[in-house]
């Protein structure tokens, strides 16, 4: 008996779906597109930092290990307000060190990914690292702490825009727009789509020119706004 009831329930459900589909297909409707855009400045930056082992003054007996340089980076990052869990290792590799007294020797190098939310602390972070152990630094990604809210806002505006466009078309024929029949979300709001070409950066360093003056090279990152767009396809009933 239970199986028979279940069978009839499924048949009824399919009949209702088919009826709704037929109603949509047979109804008078208008299809439009909705659009929304917004400029947003990322408030999360992902840095790629590569560290390497080296010899002090080229002396092979005075190697500065990757663990020591890594500790300098971690200490600097924590001091700059970076959370420990926001520092991850991306890659580990080795390179040859050429020395006149010895054959090529293998030294370690590590690449880290650091999530930064306070750009004012970048100089503090990189200043803690010995410049000889800092192989390269670059920006390789953006994000935003309110990404979900921004996405919701854009989709809401795009749906309203689709309805307004439908109302314009319907009014041109002396008609009015009723309920929405179909909404297709064609948007893909992803900050990673705007990942910059890696921008090389360097820790703050000081050098002395011929006049004896000290020149300071501060780390300066200009984060520009990103234009996010959203597209919606809508089908509306014409009354």
Descriptive notes:
The two termini are about 45 Å apart. It contains 4 helices and 12 strands, in the order H-E-E-E-E-H-E-E-H-E-H-E-E-E-E-E. The protein is rod-shaped and about 90 Å long. Mean pLDDT is about 80; it is low at about 200-220. The chain is α+β, with helices and mostly antiparallel strands. The protein folds into 2 domains: about 25-40 and about 145-239, Protein of unknown function (DUF541), domain 1 (Translation Initiation Factor IF3, 2-Layer Sandwich); about 45-145, 2-Layer Sandwich (Alpha-Beta Plaits). One of its GO terms (biological process) is DNA damage response.
Question: Could you give a quick summary of the protein structure above?
Answer:
This protein is α+β, with helices and mostly antiparallel strands and 239 residues long.
Distance between the termini: 45 Å
Work out the number of β strands: 12
CATH superfamily of the largest domain: Protein of unknown function (DUF541), domain 1
Structural class: alpha+beta
Cross-sheet strand order for the largest sheet: 5-6-2-7-9
The CATH topology of the largest domain turns out to be Translation Initiation Factor IF3
Q: What fraction of the residues are assigned to beta strands by DSSP?
A: 35-45%
Instruction: State mean pLDDT (0 to 100 scale).
Output: 78
Count the domains: 2
Contiguous uncertain segments of 5+ residues: 202-218
State the CATH architecture of the largest domain: 2-Layer Sandwich
Q: Helicity level, as a percent range? A: 25-40%
Describe the main β-sheet briefly. Answer: 5 strands, antiparallel
Helix-strand string: HEEEEHEEHEHEEEEE
If helices are DSSP runs of H or I spanning 4 or more residues, what is the number of helices? 4
Q: What form results from the Cα inertia axes?
A: rod-shaped
CATH class of the largest domain: Alpha Beta
What's the alpha carbon Rg, rounded to whole Å?
Answer: 30 Å
